[in-house]
Amino acid sequence: MINSVSILIPCFNEEKTIKKVIDKVLNVDLGNISREIIIINDGSTDQTKMLLESYKDIKNVKLIHHERNYGKGKALRSGIKNALNDIIIIQDADLEYDPDQYPNLLKPFIETEADIVYGSRFLGGGDYNRLLFFWHSVANKILTLICNFFSNLNMTDMETGFKVFKREVLQSIDLKENSFGIEPEITIKLAKKKFIFFEVPIKYNGRSYEEGKKIGIKDAFRALYCIIKYSFFD
C-alpha cells in the first residue's frame, strides 16, 4: 500500500518549462496518495531560481538551491537525502516525461512486490514517442545491454528519466556520482542488492539540443565507465 510519494525535480536552466512541470506535478491525480515535491535548483544562471520563489510558501513543496552547477547526480543526491515519503519518483524538469503517467508507474508497487520501477521508452504501448536522434537511441540501447550484462537484468531502458523507488530501497545505497553517471550507478548498486525491478511502457516527448537537451556523448562514456566501476570496484 502506498500512502505518500516524494517527487524529486532536479533542474538547471529550465526557465521555459519549470513552472509547467511543477504545476503538472501539483495537479496530477494520485487519489488518496499524498505528495511532497522537492525541487533542486542546481546552480541555474537563467530565471529558474526566481521562478521557483513563487512556490516557496506552498506547504508540500521544498526548494533546495545549489550555489553552483554540479550535475544531475548531485541534485538527485540532495533530493534523496531530504525525501520523507514512501515512494520516490524522479521527474525531469523539461517535460520530456509527463507526470500524468505517475499512476501507471505506481501500479507495480500496489499490485506486486516491486522495489523499483523504470519507465521504458522502448517497450511500446505508450500513446506516443517523439522521433529524435538515431545515434542517441543506439547509444542508449548499447549502454542498457552492457548494464544488463553486468547486472544480470533484462531492462530495455536503463537511461530512462522516469525512475521510481521505495524510499528505504534508494536510501540504502551510498551514491557518489555528480553527473548523469548516477543513472547506471543507481541501477548497478540496487541490482547487486537483489531488489525487485519492474518496467512499464511510457510515452516520451523528447526534445532537441536546440530546445535545451543537455546529455551528450561525454555522458555516454561516463555511463560506460560507471557501469564497470560500480560493477567491480565499489
Describe it for me?
By secondary structure, this protein is of the alpha/beta class. It has one domain: Spore Coat Polysaccharide Biosynthesis Protein SpsA, Chain A. It is built from eight helices and seven strands, in the order βαβαβαβαβαβααβα. It has a seven-stranded mixed beta sheet, sandwiched between helices. Helix 1 (18-27) links the parallel strand 1 and strand 2. The longest helix has 18 residues, at 134-151. It is globular. The N and C termini lie far apart (33 Å).
List its salient traits.
globular; 234 residues; Spore Coat Polysaccharide Biosynthesis Protein SpsA, Chain A
Q: Which regions contain 5 or more consecutive residues with pLDDT less than 50?
A: none
Average pLDDT figure: 92
Alpha plus pi helix count: 8
Distance between the termini: 33 Å
Helix content bin = 25-40%
Largest sheet: 7 strands, mixed
Which CATH architecture would you pick? Alpha-Beta Complex
DSSP strand tally? 7
CATH superfamily: Spore Coat Polysaccharide Biosynthesis Protein SpsA, Chain A
CATH class: Alpha Beta
Overall tally of domains: 1
Shape: globular
CATH topology, anyone? Spore Coat Polysaccharide Biosynthesis Protein SpsA, Chain A
Class by SSE composition = alpha/beta
Major sheet: arrangement of strands = 3-2-1-4-6-5-7
Strand content: 15-25%
SSE pattern, N- to C-terminal: EHEHEHEHEHEHHEH
Structural Rg: 17 Å
